[in-house]
Amino acid sequence: MSQITELSARGTAPAPARGRRPHRAWSVAAVTFLTLIGAAGFASLPGLLIDPLHAAFHWSRGTIGFAVSVNLALYGLTAPFAAALMDRFGIRRVVAAALTLIAVGAGLTVFMTAAWQLVLLWGVLVGLGSGSMALAFAATVTNRWFVARRGLVTGILTAAGASGQLVFLPLLSWIVERYTWRPAAVTVALAALAVVPLVWLLLRDHPADVGLAPYGATEFVPKPPPQRGAARRALRALRSAAGTGPFWLLSGTFAICGATTNGLVKTHFVPAAHDHGMPMTAAASLLAVIGVFDVAGTIASGWFTDRFDTRRLLGVYYGLRGVSLMFLPLLLADSVHPPMVFFIVFYGLDWVATVPPTIALCREHYGEDGAIVFGWVLAAHQVGAALIAFLGGLARDAFGTYDPVWCASGALCAVAALMALVIRRPRAAA
């Protein structure tokens, strides 16, 4: 350890061990990927619970949608503070605590008897837990452990959520139909809790903890001291970023991204398809297929982010998403047919392809505070998701159909495409 300390002070990396072992950064990325998969189970459940909770408790879809919207909003609003907390207390402690909170919130829902308990447990507890990791977690790991291949690694870690959706959606929909919703909630709680030992034993906070330079770095990077005042730092980063145009454009586009993915499709696609006579398991399986192609689309987007203009990538992604949403009301039916499969594949490739270029733009514009600024941009994403989760339920109660929501969301995507194209280049790249 004394040798490492001395080398750290000089700013040079320790001599690499002989052999061709992969850099430790890849194993950290693998643990992060598995952790995000385990945590993704809770995000797969809300869309499956709308009809069962409506039938069991006679709560309106607007009420249930409100609980989901609280979850989504807190997910986003917690993210920037979580990035700062990781700087203060370390990634391992924050993520382990977050997974435990998710498990407690999801597990206690089996005892609820009133709508306010759904809001408290699923909305507040699970929302706070999920917001303490998720994409802020991925951005922090990428920024600390990687210099080269950042776009690719961001794409891979972002795809973990889709992989979790692929694993959990068919299972949870089968459990809900066969055994009701309570065993499904317990399954989510156990999945989140099972990942905690993995995080605690295998994850490391910084390359310097194991005497390494970040992957792709030419010099050793000493571990920075813990950053006190996590809340102040997060607010300071927000105040600084809020004085720049790119922050508001990125926040606006990402709010629309959240509205048209987590808020709309993930929450309301299954009940919307069920309205047209499609069995819940079939609709949930279609969402799982979105997860399959989301993995490919997000990793490809990370590769593109390393090579192409990120603003144009975002413009293309949002434009194509808007077109697909406009056609969706014409495709919903009582069975799965080829045009619907085409929509699912197309939408899956685009689902979170927006994340790698958005993180890259935050990093380019805001440097060391990039992960925290992305946390605030993610907050906008989740506020957009929360609004549509709530308004989508109200629209279904009022109009008896989701069609107006699909069309309005498609129009919003066109606005997002235009906003992305007018983001200026960072000064250093000019």
Automatic annotation (TrEMBL):
Q: Which InterPro entries match?
A: MFS, MFS_dom, MFS_trans_sf, Proton-linked_MCT
Give the Major facilitator superfamily (MFS) profile domain ranges: 27-428
Any single GO CC term annotated in Swiss-Prot or TrEMBL for this entry = plasma membrane
Q: What is its main location?
A: membrane
Looking at the record, which segments are called Disordered? 1-20
Membrane topology term reads: Multi-pass membrane protein
One Pfam family for this entry, by name? MFS_1
Query: Would the keyword NADP be found if you checked this record's keyword annotation?
Result: no
Keywords from the named record: Membrane, Transmembrane, Transmembrane helix
Q: Which domain of life is it from?
A: Bacteria
The record ties this protein, via CDD domains, to: MFS_YcxA_like
- Show the GO MF annotations: transmembrane transporter activity
Residues annotated as transmembrane: 28-50, 62-82, 94-114, 120-140, 152-175, 181-203, 241-261, 281-304, 316-333, 339-361, 373-395, 401-423
The places in or outside the cell where this protein is found are: Cell membrane
From the Swiss-Prot or TrEMBL record, give the protein name: MFS transporter
Upper classification of the source organism reads: Bacteria, Bacillati, Actinomycetota, Actinomycetes, Kitasatosporales
